[in-house]
Write a structure and sequence with these properties.
With 363 residues, this protein is an alpha/beta fold. The chain is built from 17 helices and 14 strands. It has a domain of 151 residues. It is 35% helix and 15% strand. An eight-stranded mixed β-sheet has the order 3-4-9-10-11-12-13-14. It has a four-stranded mixed β-sheet with strand order 1-2-8-5, with no helix packed on it. Strands 6-7 form a two-stranded antiparallel sheet. Strand 1 and strand 2 form a beta hairpin. Helix 7 runs parallel beside helix 9.
């Protein structure tokens, strides 16, 4: 039986006796399913695949922190081969399953636009997105074993695709820091650390020694605090994230700010802040960045949420264009990138002996 969409597949499984899918195998299937052929391969035999994924049940939480259900698990693997939106990378690495930045704050959702909300790992989770975290204990050991077997001169890792590696639980478990120490022992061609957390500043001591092939990619969707509080209430303030970006830049650690998705902002002030705080900017939108030409963002009611804040038609108004024009004037076109092609640009890599500084890919 074939399904026309990932949602159709998810709905077909909803009434079955399903426990939490094996997160470290499913989380990147969603990214890979952007292409139709991959989607068909994903759903063509759901019974066999789901039986394999659901051997582990979700046990009662050992403890709770900030109303987030936390469970520990030993992962079977660390790196996941990737593609789709992350074409240009060879693997992704998710030290946690779930993301507490997505939890509810009163009646407000954290990051309501997050594409992972539409993925199997979120739909089949033990609660709403943001209400649970799977801690992959020992993932640094698995990572070391896998890096030993890879051609590391051609390995490009995106960390992370379906979680934030620096969400609050990282203060306790330090899985991300452990993985960074592993990468320091086994260097690769490129490592991108994608986060919206200021906790990454803790690891600048490590990153400053890896800066030839590590990029800090810090999310900042707006410079308006009222918009941040309304749509990303669990995220650090605008000022805090800009401060961390400037600190990385001062230390010589490659730093990009990712305006993903671009939300309502004060144009001139935002462009000035971005240009002075980072090496380059990647701008993305609710349409280009959700992997479905805006369909997922519409299912997540982003048009309605933005209209309720006084910005009707935001998704259709191409809000990225004025910001990118202003940034280009201040930073130059080579430092202002867009969506998938921007994430897949590796011109920031400093190591001259790496065979692939900038991937040759069709976008």
């Amino acid at each position: 039986m074939r399904f026309e969409s990932l949602n159709a597949f998810a709905d077909s499984r909803r009434d079955k006796a399903i426990t939490l899918p094996r997160v470290n195998q499913m989380e990147d299937e969603f990214l890979l399913s952007h292409e139709k052929a991959r989607l068909v391969a994903f759903v063509v035999s759901p019974r066999r695949r789901m039986d394999r994924w659901t051997r582990h049940t979700w046990l009662p939480a050992r403890h709770k922190e900030d109303s987030v259900n936390i469970q520990e698990k030993t992962p079977r693997h660390a790196l996941t081969r990737t593609g789709g939106f992350l074409k240009g990378y060879t693997h992704s690495l998710n030290p946690y399953g779930g993301c507490a930045f997505g939890r509810d704050v009163g009646e407000r959702q954290g990051c309501p636009f997050c594409y992972v909300r539409e993925s199997p790992v979120a739909r089949f989770g033990p609660g709403g997105w943001g209400a649970w975290i799977l801690v992959k204990k020992g993932i640094d050991g698995r990572l070391a074993a896998e890096l030993k077997r890879l051609d590391r001169t051609r390995t490009r890792v995106f960390m992370s695709s379906a979680t934030d590696p620096y969400q609050g639980i990282e203060r306790r478990y330090e899985l991300t820091r452990r993985c960074l120490k592993t990468f320091a022992r086994f260097p690769i061609a490129a490592l991108v650390l994608q986060t919206r957390s200021v906790l990454i500043e803790r690891d600048f001591d490590l990153l400053s020694k890896m800066k030839a092939w590590v990029l800090v990619s810090l999310t900042l969707e707006t410079n308006r605090e009222d918009i941040r509080r309304a749509l990303t209430p669990t995220s650090p303030t605008v000022a805090a994230r800009l401060r961390v970006a400037r600190h990385a830049k001062d230390l010589g650690i490659p730093i990009q700010i990712v305006v993903a998705p671009v939300l309502p902002h004060i144009l001139d002030a935002f462009a000035d802040a971005l240009a002075s705080s980072c090496d380059r900017v990647v701008v993305d939108t609710l349409t280009a960045g959700d992997g479905a030409r805006g369909a997922r963002s519409r299912r997540l009611d982003m048009n309605e949420k933005l209209a309720g804040l006084g910005f009707p038609g935001w998704m259709e108004n191409e809000p990225e264009r004025p910001l990118m024009r202003k940034l280009t004037q201040k930073m130059g076109a080579e430092r202002v990138l867009f969506s998938q092609s921007g994430f897949a640009d590796f011109s920031w890599v400093q190591s001259a002996d790496l065979p692939l500084r900038k991937p040759e890919i069709n976008l």
